[in-house]
Amino acid sequence: MKLLASLKIWIVIYPSITLFLYLFGPALSAFPIYVRTLILTLTLVPWVVFVGVPVVDLIIRAFSGSKEDKK
Q: Where are the alpha helices (DSSP H) in the chain?
């Protein structure tokens, strides 16, 4: 179960961090690393917890439910 939860979080966090840094990295580069990290975590942790992982859960349920319907 913990492995599955870790994979779900990784599926959400990796593209989110990449996109965030692509969009805002140049603007944030003037700040010290600890401020950049603070801004990154203040925005991405709620995104992952309240939006990203629940969407991944819905997608997984949709695919697992469709397989059970075929039985």
A: 2-28, 33-46, 53-69
**Rounded distance, CA 37 to CA 13, Å?**
14
**How many folded domains does the chain comprise?**
1
Extract the tokens encoding 60. 């997984």
Indicate the pTM of the whole model.
Answer: 0.79
In which domain, by residue range, is 29 found? Answer: 2-69
Q: What is the pLDDT of residues 4-36, one digit of tens each?
A: 999 999 999 999 999 999 999 999 999 999 999
What b/e sequence results for 12-48 when a residue is b if at least 16 CB atoms lie within 10 Å of its CB, and e otherwise? bbeebeeebeeeeeeebeeeeeeebeeebeeebeeeb
How many Cα atoms are found within 13 Å in the side-chain-facing hemisphere of 31? Answer: 13
